[in-house]
Amino acid sequence: MCRPHHVATLSWSVSSHYWDSVLAWLAKRPRPRKANELHKSIRSASEDIEAYLRAKGLTAKDLTAQSRSIRGWLAYFSERENFDAYVAAALGHARSSRRQSAAQGAFVAPAIVEFRPTPGLYGSAATATEPA
Q: Which one of 64, 81, 109, 131 is at 20 to 30 Å from 97 when CA atoms are compared?
């Protein structure tokens, strides 16, 4: 028996502002209260997606590739251990960057590394302000 090819058509439009703001806060090593807010937001978004899929009788196969990536990112970082590890890794990178800059004896703009859930999965940016 031949089955028709399944085409994923469901996608989520997630504001780039949401990702930019979450990733910017995570890269800055948020204070515990802000970290808790960010984690709660990520967990809530993940739970909302899963509830929607269950309610509609859909699976991940019904999502577009980009939406599956977003769903996976949110699900992964909705686990507190993974979220905390991300924050710690971002902080470790920032410290390493500062040490390297000091060892070179010249100002090197600190880099911010982001793990994005979409094409261009990893991103980086240098900040333009010099340390005081």
A: 81
